[in-house]
Amino acid sequence: MTQTEKTMDIDHLIAALGLGDRLGGEGLAVRTPIDGSVIAHVAETSEAAYDAAVARAVAAFETWRRVPAPRRGELVRRLGELLRAHKEALGRLVSIETGKILEEGLGEVQEMIDICDFAVGLSRQLHGLTIASERPEHRMSELWHPLGPVGVITAFNFPVAVWSWNAALALVCGDPVVWKPSERTPLTALACEALARRAAEGLEEAPEGLVQVVIGGRALAERMADDGRLPLVSATGSCAMGRALGPRIAARFGRALLELGGNNAAVVTPSADLDLAVRAVLFSAVGTAGQRCTTTRRLIVHESVREEMLSRLRSAYAQVRIGNPLEPGTLMGPLVSREAYEAMEAALARALAEGGAVDGGGRVLAERYPEAWYVRPALVEMPAQTEIVRTETFAPILYVLTYRELEEAIALNNAVPQGLSSAIFTTDLREAEAFTGPAGSDCGIVNVNTGTSGAEIGGAFGGEKETGGGRESGSDAWKAYMRRVTSTVNYGRGLPLAQGIRFGD
Ligand code: UN1
Known about the structure:
Bound molecules: 2-aminohexanedioic acid
Largest sheet: 7 strands, mixed
CATH superfamily of the largest domain: Aldehyde Dehydrogenase, Chain A, domain 1
Number of strands: 23
CATH class of the largest domain: Alpha Beta
Helix content: 25-40%
Distance between the termini: 86 Å
Shape: globular
Number of helices: 14
Strand order of the largest sheet: 12-15-16-11-10-18-19
């Protein structure tokens, strides 16, 4: 695609998605990783504008929390319809802003549509409990009420889906959303804000300020972490980001929902269906150019199938078409930035120094795209799980380790600081159950015969240890966006006290 074509394409997308009013001027330059060119300028949010945005969210909460939850669901239903109508344009913009292939850009929008559908159903199912009281003529119950404005901080790699997991739930739970997207991907965020605004138009009960985007970097994230008007801050990004923000949120007794790094392993056992395992590992290791928090970064393969698995993987890797993510047939687009490329190169150098055998890596397409960072994915055979293997590098590097006994594989899987996702490839029921059981993988996501990435929205998404412990998206993740009330009602005339205490009678 030539420069002119791409510019026209962007203008067309900006018009189609209705995000024009926040663009232009001297603000932040937004570049596409596809060729490194500047595609737009976006104004950063000043301190005063941020304060005004949160004040609007606080005011919106006053109204929104009184709107019946199924009517709140109507807003999210409308948002889902608009996302359906704009899937092509938004998916394309996701690809342009992140560099992920179009198929994945569209998949990301589908993930948003799915969570909207989920949240609409949820809006009629924010169920509490009835609890047996120990006292006569008493009823105990648990109620769930809206919490307040939610701060959402998202990363470049899933610029809109992760927001939607938070926003769709927050909105039906009665909470306005103040969203700080990655500085690299403000356009898709502004597009979502515009769609959410349109969804609210015509819905009488919806106040202004339910969904607002604020643009900025670390200082803005810290301001949100410190802001007592945001009872919940949901942040997705690196472990370092979580380490910086988590204690600040805790210091004011705010709630943090953290979804941080992953260092996900796939265990390939002697009984594995290798055709399936190769395809699954390829998608999870190479997809999104290794820039998912769920990317497979470690392959723990049984010694008896190691050679077979590796030779099949090598030929699969050789067939991966690397290039412009908007072109049909491309499987791997660029890394997001020069820094990402340098981090990959540094990791490969360290792997070499730690005894690894590196196959792949290195820059490609530099002549065609001098300002962009396309790389070959790397397979790295390691003698042991050394320090670099235990480190998350956001790039398509797959470290290969060997094991003999399943316990050893499970121990290797667990011996990293992160605990997001994991997978085992086996047709042996005992092995599958051992891996998914209480003494198995210590991750939040534990899969059998499917890869570590590409989770559906219906399950709770998140992980343990340095991954941060938060759960977003499906299952009962909605409870994080509400406050729990335990209520005891005495419908008798006496005053029996709990624990049988008699007090002055
Ligand atoms: C992320 O990389 O932060 O499971 C989210 C997956 C996607 C979400 C990844 N559904 O790979």
